Amino acid sequence: MPGGPVFRRYPASYDDGPASVARVGLIALASDHTAESELRSLVERPGVALYTTRIANDPVVTPQSLRAMEAGLTDAAARLLPGVEFDVIAYGCTSASTVIGEDVVADRVRAAKPGVAIATPIGAARAALAALGARSVAVLTPYTDDVNVRIHGHLVDHGITVTAFGSFHDANDNSVARIDAGSIAAAARALAAAAGTEAVFISCTSIRFAAQVPALEATLGLPVITSNTGLAWSILRQAGVDEPEPDKGRLFALPYPDPAP
After folding, report:
1. What global pTM score does this model have?
2. Among 27, 44, 149, 214, which is 20 to 30 Å from 83 by CA?
3. Is the CB of residue 166 less than 8 Å from the CB of residue 190?
């Protein structure tokens, strides 16, 4: 072309982008099959965008493999849209949040994203129980007992009565994500029959059950929280998204407790 190519420049105007209401980050596990998709379906809406990074982990869940993730939290958080501020960052592992400790998780994430609000599944579960006015809970997990004892102890240490505790005793994230809804519902129904139960908590972000929560609540006549529904609710409320959505479960009709437990 004589004289070389012509590159035309045009003016551009800018809007507030896909996160005009809230920008949410998720640190998902490398072995996650479930949390990213369930949280996206529960959290995203016009103006609320969820951005995900992954943290290296061993898919076999033990206290040791959970604790090993602590070292990677800051780098994982730093990979979430470098140079961009977030309203909330969530760490998508219930058992690791418990074993590592919520304060440590928050410190590691804020080393990369100073001042950001932090959501963890175990903290969200406590806040959800407080919002629901439930002080006694039946708990279902997929974990082996070396992890179960940490979850049980955490709840009791925070003043929550555990009326019944059951597990599928499957330590592998890759198979936990394939536990079917019928098995989960049957185990939850059995546990919920324990005297004094005011709510059911289904722990583990690998568990696929968010869509079935309203139906199980109707069957039991009790509120049901999963790690992912609790985490999604916590994310939304901490991000200032407060509209009631009872079709997603009883929890989604409620505000965040103040102060959070």
Report:
1. 0.96
2. 44
3. yes
